[in-house]
Amino acid sequence: MAILVTGGAGYIGSHTVLALLERDEDVVIIDNLSNASQESLTRVTELAGKAPAVYIADILDREALKSIFARHTITDVIHFAGLKSVSESIKNPLAYYENNVVGTMVLLNEMALAGVNSLIFSSSATVYGHPDKVPLSEQSRTGGTTNPYGTSKLMVEQILADFSVAHPDFTITCLRYFNPVGAHPSGRLGEDPNGIPNNLVPYISQVAIGKLECLTVFGNDYPTPDGTGIRDYIHVMDLASGHLAALDHKAEGGAFKAINLGTGVGYSVIDLIKAFEKAAQTTINYRIVGRRSGDVAECWSDSSLARQQLGWQAIRNLDEMMRDAWNWQKNNPTGYRA
Ligand code: NAD
Ligand code: WQD
């Protein structure tokens, strides 16, 4: 009996695979390494003292999926594989719809053929678009996404909801992550973006290590206490434990649900800079520029449904997130590349 993890070599996938191995699950990974390095899996194996089965293949490859389902007795699929850059999705929408939407459809079809009927999908707070109000609960309106990446997540959620009506034996959980940050406390696993990071914490980390000169803060004229954008940052270790909780609390007899994974607390860009400065004992060079197109003022979760339905809540605070992000950056200045 094993759990199939798509995209298991990536940032959130590698932390979740480690958590699964640590509780003695058998894990099978499919990853095409389009945004990951196999080094992450070497390190997962070192930390766990146990190796996952790894297939370097694409989820769009039906034959690869068929052979994995034929070789292993898979009970559940945790589906991380997909493309995640907002800016890249605007430049190349078809790649995003193909990987994220078609990829999920291919996977789902092969699951159904193989009789595997439990799926946990990596969704995102991006499905809420421009929020009318915060905190965002699962009852909040979805839609109004501002880029093809966000739209691809919303489309997949809709496809999964429709699929679950036609396949009432399937249990499908869409976990809507807020802003994942941080790294494994060992400093061996973390986020390894290609090129110049788009996201705030990898950007700050690279300023702190001297790879980038100055952080540009996108706007200080939002209707927030210090004028900068507010987000719900969540430690990647908490996200990993959220997936284990979702596995443990899947509804028997089939169901579709969407659940927020956030802390329920919002922090501003300036809060992040200060917390990182404290963690790294350094000063972060920054300058304020205009707003980034598509950004919202505030996005943070009501995380009560996850507490009720999964018995899960985030336990790591902002200082721990920044400490572990810095520990990863400091120990791996060039990421997984030697
Ligand atoms: P990541 O890029 O580090 O991991 C994704 C993994 O999937 C990579 O290892 C990549 O090589 C693999 N992959 C991509 N396309 C594939 C394909 N067609 N076939 C096989 N493997 C493929 O990203 P992450 O941050 O770990 O995110 C994991 C999931 O969570 C993604 O679906 C992402 O959209 C979603 N998510 C991420 C965030 C975030 O900010 N990191 C927030 C919300 C949701
Ligand atoms: C956070 C805050 C920026 C960079 C994105 C995706 C979302 C989800 C998570 C996958 C904002 C500010 C940022 C910088 C800055 N991904 N910022 N200077 O935009 O909330 O969410 O990643 O699902 O879909 O949109 O995250 O880290 O880019 O930005 O001032 O150089 O930091 O304006 O307020 P975001 P982020």
Automatic annotation (TrEMBL):
One of its GO terms (molecular function) is UDP-glucose 4-epimerase activity. It catalyses: UDP-alpha-D-glucose = UDP-alpha-D-galactose. Its cofactor is NAD(+). Its EC number is 5.1.3.2. Pathway: Carbohydrate metabolism; galactose metabolism. GO terms for cellular component: cytosol. CDD domains: UDP_G4E_1_SDR_e. Keywords: Carbohydrate metabolism, Galactose metabolism, Isomerase, NAD. Residues 3-262 form the NAD-dependent epimerase/dehydratase domain. It is an enzyme of class 5 (isomerase). InterPro entries: Epimerase_deHydtase (IPR001509), NAD(P)-bd_dom_sf (IPR036291), UDP_G4E (IPR005886). The keyword NAD applies. One of its GO terms (biological process) is galactose metabolic process. Belongs to the NAD(P)-dependent epimerase/dehydratase family. Homodimer. This is UDP-glucose 4-epimerase. It comes from Silvania confinis.
